[in-house]
Amino acid sequence: MKNKKRLIIIEIVLGIAIIAVIIFIVKNVKGQEHEEKQLSTSNQYVVETTIEQSLSQPTTQKETTKQTATKPITTSGQSFVEAATIKIDENKWNLTLLNREYKLPDGYVPKTATITLSDNDPRRTEKALSQVLDYRVAPEYQKMYDAAVQDGIYLTPYSGYRSISFQKQIFNNYVDMYKKQGYATDAAKYKASMTSLPPGTSEHNMGMAMDIVNTKNDFENSKEYAWLETNAQDYGFILRYPKNKTEKTQIMHEPWHWRYVGVEAAKALKASGQCLEEYLGVK
Questions:
Q1: Nearest to 198 by CA among 206, 208, 190, 207
Q2: What's residue 256's pLDDT?
Q3: For the chain, domain boundaries
Q4: What is the 8-class DSSP label of residue 222?
Q5: Catalytic residue list contains 264
Q6: Nearest to 239 by CA among 278, 187, 196, 276
Q7: 237 close to 260: Cβ distance less than 8 angstroms
Q8: What CATH number matches the domain at 84-280, 3.20.20.70, 3.30.1380.10, 3.30.565.10, 3.40.50.2000?
Q9: What is the tens place of the pLDDT at every residue in 74-113?
Q10: Which position among 140, 203, 224, 254 bears the catalytic label?
């Protein structure tokens, strides 16, 4: 009788142990599937804020995952071309065109000024307070910011002027990301330039543009974006990269990126529906 009870106890213990092992295996499989999913999404389109954060963080295992491409990927008919250096017309400085084909003169550094934020701004952080723009643009942004505050809207500065060296870091991080996916160097640069412009070709390098609030695609559905769509041109700012003009701007839609061009040009652009390249009659 005692032996029978002992056998029953042993069977129960073994059963519990088997169940525990099964649960452990299932959890590990699910955990691995979750990690694989994260790895796949980490290689999808990313916005500049992700790259900015990565510059100050150590490399993780996910970031160094080896790719399985057997040969470098190239982009058929598309190659990276170094931008031509422009000469800034000081009489039309507000209409200076920077894009993948036009870059600032070497050594260009704008004189900058800060923006004063409302004490009630919910995103009033050290980062927001440290953002600057070209000294001629900052006062115009200030006017727009203050006007929005009167309507209960806070156009918190997220990313204004960037140094050439910082822009280079951002661009190179994108290039490295695409190279890890198997792209050849030239193709990686081409793809990177569609998301983050090469150093010297970004309006941020001239202090002419501000990323407002954040760099998330859902900003398009925010009250801040709605206010900008209605009022920004009255203060000389335009949505620089509209979603229906990517072929002209060669940059993905960025609802957060607003560029100063002056009131006259901003109103004309708004009325015509043109992007800056079309307005200026150049590529």
A1: 190
A2: 98
A3: 2-42, 84-280
A4: S
A5: no
A6: 276
A7: yes
A8: 3.30.1380.10
A9: 665 678 888 999 999 999 999 999 999 999 999 999 999 9
A10: 254
